[in-house]
Amino acid sequence: MGPLDVSIHLLNFAAPAVFVAALTVLLGRLLWSKRPSALMWWSQLAINFAVCLAASAFGLWFFGRDGMMATYGALVLGCATSQWVMMRGWTRF
User: Fold this and answer.
1) Which residues, including other chains, have CB under 8 Å from residue 61's CB and lie 6 or more apart?
2) Which residue from 52, 55, 78, 84 could staple onto 17, CB 3.0 to 4.6 Å apart?
3) Which tens digit of pLDDT belongs to each residue from 3-15?
4) Crossing angle, helix 69-88 and helix 3-31, to 10 degrees?
5) CA–CA distance from 16 to each of 11, 32, 33, 89 (Å)?
6) How close are the terminal C-alpha atoms of the chain, in Å?
7) In 1-93, which ranges are continuous DSSP H helix?
8) Which residues of 46-81 are buried (b: 16+ CB within 10 A; e: fewer)?
């Protein structure tokens, strides 16, 4: 497998994480626009992407293959939880 194939595989592995992270930040901003957010949108996107990528990597390690529905469920649950924590604000901890 050449370098182009490896990069295509890695991009396809990260694509659901990017999509879910971006959609979560966008919907969080639209639904709770009146609440002040503790972080900028790009930092929320980076944190959500890292959480989603970690969930995908753990699912790949645990199941031995990519694309299991349990992995995608964990990806969505982890991303929603991290967005919820970020939208609460850091003063309540």
Assistant:
1) none
2) 52
3) 999 999 999 999 9
4) 50
5) 9, 24, 25, 26
6) 48
7) 3-31, 41-63, 69-88
8) ebbbebbbebbeebeeeeeeeeeeebbebbbebbbe
- Dump pLDDT digits (tens) for 55-92: 999 999 999 988 899 999 999 999 999 998 888 765 45
Instruction: Name the residue type at position 38.
Output: A
DSSP 64: S
Please tell me the distance from the alpha carbon of residue 51 to that of residue 56, in angstroms, as a whole number. 9
The two three-digit tokens of residue 25, written as one number: 């930040």
The position carrying tokens 């966008």 is: 26
Tokens representing 70?
Answer: 């349990």
Tell me what percent of the residues of the chain surpass a pLDDT of 70: 88
Rg (CA), the chain: 15
The reported pTM is 0.87
For tokens 């970020």, name the residue: 86
Contact 74, 62 (CB under 8 A): no
